[in-house]
Amino acid sequence: MKASHGYLSELEHYLSPLTSEEKDDAINFYSEYIEDAGLQTKEDIERKLGTARQLSRKILADHSIKVDEDNRQKNKKTSPRSNSKMIWIIILAIISAPMTLGIGGVLLLLIMVAILTAAIVAVAGLATLIVVMAMCLYTGALLLFTHWTVGMFYLGCGLTALGVLLVAVPLLYWLCSVIMQIVANFARYLYRRFSKRRQREV
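That's the Membrane protein sequence above. Prediction below.
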């Protein structure tokens, strides 16, 4: 069927993040699904499965959750970067689905925006602290042999800023890891509920 071939080719294009084997498995599954369901036209396929882009986001979200769960079963630690990637994939899958986003989806999106904003503020704060530390150490070193009391003051400020940095950076990383893990768990829960509701409505 030309309609299914075009749809599946487009779907394969959107599944580029997957390996060749994973893409082949997905394409074969939906090829058989379309054939068994007797979907003849592109409109029929999209009415049942959504557009190729929408379906690809669902597949990528399912794959991301599966990989994450496999890693958890193997006791592999999930990095904040992996969690954030999975969360964004889930958000895209929910947003692009041919149905309302729902309160949970909006809440998840708002949480991610808030986290991103907080991360930007934290990075800006750390950058400012680094600049202040460097300026204090530089000024202190210059004044140490001319106005040693003032120089010691600036050196003390610089070393204090360095100490704060040494404590703040690992603390912020740990806090980020914890928050991203909590949000990732919520995203998985929300996506499962979303998928079940979508299956009931199809």
